[in-house]
Automatic annotation (TrEMBL):
One of its GO terms (cellular component) is membrane. The gene is slc26a5. It comes from Cyclopterus lumpus (Lumpsucker). This is Solute carrier family 26 member 5. GO terms for molecular function: secondary active sulfate transmembrane transporter activity. Pfam families: Sulfate_transp (PF00916). Residues 66-408 form the SLC26A/SulP transporter domain. PANTHER family: SULFATE TRANSPORTER. Keywords: Membrane, Transmembrane, Transmembrane helix. It is a multi-pass membrane protein. It is found in: Membrane.
Amino acid sequence: MYRIERPVYDEAFIRSQLLHRKKTSTTLRQRQAHWFRCSSKKAKAAAFSFLPILTWLPSYPVKQYLFSDVVSGLSTGVVQLPQGLAYAMLAAVPPVYGLYSSFYPVLLYTFFGTSRHVSVGTFAVISLMIGAIVVREAPDAMFYVPSANGTNGTNATAVLDVEARDLKRVQVAVVLTTLVGIIQFVFGLLRFGFVAIYLTEPLVRGFTTAAAVHVVVSQLKYLLGVKTQRFSGPLTVIYSLKAVGSHITNTNVSTVMLGLACIVFLYVCKDLNERFKKKLPIPIPGEIIVVIATTSLSYGMSLSHDYQMDVVGKIPTGLLPPVTPEFSLLPNLITDSIAVAIVGFSMGISLAKTFALKHGYSVDSNQELIALGLCNFLSSFFQTFAITCSMSRSLVQESTGGKTQVTALAAIIMVNLLGMFKQFRDIPALWRTSKIELAIWLVAFVASVLLGLDYGLLVAVAFAILTVIYRTQSPKSAILGRVAGTGLYCDVDEYEEATEYEGIKIFHSNSSIYFANSDLYVYTLKEKVILTVCFKYCAEGKRNLIPFTSFEQRNIGSTYICVQFMEAGSIKEELDN
């Protein structure tokens, strides 16, 4: 027989008799003076915090790190050109702007970033979000002009002014990037790095999987060689598939054959790189091989003229001088820029923390916001579009021996969409572990596919917040039993090794008690403890035993209530009443 007793205190008694708050010895004015006081020590700490390169560059071990950094930089940089060109097309701007976006941000992140392994640059999800915004603000319909071949306007046909359209789209993308940089920088100064916690892993993985669907659908017309309109907004995927289907009879067979051959070759290269990554000194540069081979084939066989294949065309050489963005476009882009800023930061910080944990160092989420903000803001004056970190490219940098951000100077994008589609494997795993996490994944995926990436993200975040409310309002509770030979207490309904103490019930709730769950808490407590035991003892004919609470303990994160069952004795009369 166990007997546990403790005095029962109320809040008034605790505050007035047991606990007294410590008196602060400093006034508000003194704290403000201390905060704004400048000293050489505080100035040095601020400089090291704002420019993390100062903490590692002076002590950079040249003999130990330089060779591996060079090899890693070359390995990552060799896949830079084709992916930079490709993701500029996703962003609906001329391909050369993908190269600009792969140079300036990388250089800036070296000075301001805190991660040693992430590789910044263009990224498929961000590029696709930018492309949807750019097409919405500068659709093809705005740039049709009468053909010069018409006579007095009677037989004139409208033609698309590609040059004017591309100029406008670049302006929109650049202004959007400027605003994204400002938002990220301000959020970093205000210490808003915690916002990433609201983008849970299932939400991000469902969202990026949906983005992969958008990317594949948007590229179908290029794979088939058909001309279709580019759509934006809700139901973009459905409209795009419908447009491609309506033009399927115009498929260019030569384009399909060449595209499928490239896909098979790239898949084999990626598979070999994954299988033999420990044996290969550098990954097989499948992308650059494809670009060189197809460029040579296009030139030698006149694919554009003889087979009507679309080609990128001439790419300007050199870098552009700095230009002031067209700030008059800002009002229409504020909401979009917030979404791009948050998605870009959440992907970057999650990847940075993964590598930091693996290699035993730390990253500063607020400084990462500042770094990405400066990369986007300053680079936008050189005609770039918004960037973030790429998982697959960062994995190349890490797996080939990269030690510091020296390697990032040559690094460019390589995003493996196959890796994103593998995230469908999350569904059975989440089904077994957490139905709520699975619901977040599915909502993020379905909403982003049907409504577009911007509205889809908003719906997914709202749903994730609702699940937090649901979890606290409907906490999981259990009766705990001791696992023999250990000090562990587990749910007796879930684990057969957990057994209860005779005469004692241990009730556990995984949430603190507040107004939204108090009624459910009391109901569940009665159901699992009081009523269960009453029914049990009544069934056994032990009516002389009644339950009463003799011990109660409350914690911030969870609640335990131990209920002991003893002889009714002198209070049997109350039971009879």
